[in-house]
Design a protein that fits this description.
- The protein has two domains: 166 residues, Aspartate Aminotransferase, domain 1; 244 residues, Aspartate Aminotransferase, domain 2 (3-Layer(aba) Sandwich), CATH 3.40.640.10.
- It has 13 helices and 17 strands.
- The strands form four sheets. It has an eight-stranded mixed β-sheet with strand order 4-13-12-11-10-5-9-7, with helices on both faces. Strands 1-2-3-16 form a four-stranded mixed β-sheet. A three-stranded antiparallel β-sheet has the order 14-15-17, covered by helices on one side.
- A hairpin with a 2-residue loop joins strand 14 and strand 15.
Length: 424
């Protein structure tokens, strides 16, 4: 069956024809691609067309598709069983590896997704501090648990307003939302609510609503204010963890959070998340403490094997190479008139405006231009994430051949933007 035929049938099974909203291509237009196989940084759709992949399953595949070491590890684990619902040695092996790479991770708990990791970390913070209020930032995404699906209200120090139907207003009232990169709003919030706040959660590298790289002083100030007021600092590193460096953004910036959430890369392409941090905080988690959290597939042995095989290959040399490649790919992107491509580690954000640090500063015209770029690049065999608010991901498999292919695609689309006005 063709892509179009598969999508027509999918519409009869799933809302929007997809299992996750952005896959529906509603933002960029056209019909979603159904993929049947992938290797390195390439994949092939059901129409037998090959694409250069710059989405990489939204981040987990730092080694590329179907890395032989990961596939072998998964195959060996599968021979011993798919799931046990009981402890396995592979949980211990992956935990040891994570703790060796992340020095402040004293105790952790495996779950099955980033959303689950965040939800559990927030509950743990509330249980430890015996406070209810949570502070998050506009432009940071933390999964789809109720308390995180809120936006800022009308004031700078504000209660959250639900952004999804089905989220009670009372849930939003326990979540405060501030803009990123606003020292004044941050200070005022802590003056008013610091002693009522259980935790502050932030993507230290905000990468789900554009790549909104923050000033280091902003993150350091946040750490200081949390410490002063007894609120826990949670770094959501589901994307940045093991992506911007071996210890994530916390290691890169030398800022120690109280709790951290990981996902994506620690599963090597399998569904995994984890949360953890200080052992005194994690001591409140059941069965040691009163904060309940459980999961039938938590610590799944096949996922543990994939994650461990991935992390074992993340060497200093690999990170240095990815940094170098990101610089080359960013420059290639910026050959498109009006486009800028900020990057950190192996994350890149093609955007038609300069220096954006806050979600409310992203220009709608920039997104419109990206939507046009997405369609043109898809025609050239380059698959970008189907949203201008999403970043691009490089992997160790994005070598010289892939860069040549990408540069050819860029050259082909440049005339379409030569007379375009850049985003402001």
């Amino acid at each position: 069956m063709s892509n179009d035929e598969l999508f027509k049938e999918a519409l009869t099974h799933f809302p929007g024809g997809v299992s996750s909203p952005v896959r529906a291509f509603r933002a960029v237009g056209g019909t979603p691609k159904f993929f049947k196989r992938a290797w390195q940084c390439w994949f092939e759709d059901e129409d037998d067309k090959t694409y250069l992949d710059l989405c990489m399953s939204w981040g987990p595949l730092i080694l590329g598709h179907a890395n032989p070491d990961v596939i072998n590890a998964v195959s060996e684990a599968m021979k011993e069983g798919l799931t046990f619902g009981a402890p396995t040695r592979r949980e211990l092996a992956l935990a040891r590896r994570i703790k060796a790479m992340v020095p402040y991770m004293e105790k952790l708990r495996f779950v099955s997704s980033g959303t689950e990791a965040v939800m559990s970390a927030l509950r743990t913070a509330r249980g430890f501090t015996k406070r209810d209020r949570i502070l998050k930032f506009d432009g940071c995404y933390h999964g789809h648990s109720d308390g995180m699906l809120v936006k800022a209200g009308s004031g700078l120090v504000t209660f959250g307003e639900p952004t999804s139907a089905g989220v009670p207003a009372a849930i939003g009232e326990l979540t405060s939302v501030l803009p990123l990169d606003d020292f004044g709003a941050l200070t005022r919030y802590f003056d008013e609510h610091g002693m009522d706040t259980a935790c502050v959660i932030i993507e230290p590298v905000p990468a789900n609503n554009g790549l909104l790289l923050q000033q280091l002083d902003f993150l350091k100030t946040l750490r200081e204010l949390c410490t002063r007021h007894g609120a826990l600092l949670i770094f959501d590193e589901v994307i940045s963890g093991f992506r911007v460096g071996p210890s994530g953004a916390a290691g890169l910036y030398n800022i120690q959070p109280d709790l951290v959430t990981f996902g994506k890369i620690i599963g090597g392409g399998m569904p995994v998340g984890c949360y953890g941090g200080r052992k005194d905080i994690m001591a409140v988690v059941a069965p040691d403490g009163p904060v309940y959290q459980a999961g039938t597939l938590s610590g799944n042995p096949v996922a543990m094997a994939a994650g461990l095989a991935t992390l074992e290959l993340l060497t200093p040399a690999l990170y240095a190479d990815l940094d170098h490649r990101a610089n080359l790919w960013s420059k290639a992107f910026e050959k498109i008139p009006g486009l800028h491509c900020p990057h950190i580690g192996s994350l890149l954000w093609p955007v038609f405006q300069e220096s954006v640090k806050r979600a409310d500063r992203i220009n709608s015209g920039s997104i419109t231009q990206f939507n046009h770029l997405h369609r043109l690049m898809l025609e050239q065999g380059v698959y970008l994430a189907p949203s201008g608010y999403e970043v691009a991901f490089l992997s160790a498999a994005h070598g010289a051949e892939a860069l040549v292919k990408f540069e050819q695609a860029v050259t082909a689309v440049v005339p379409e933007f030569s007379n375009a006005s850049p985003g402001v």
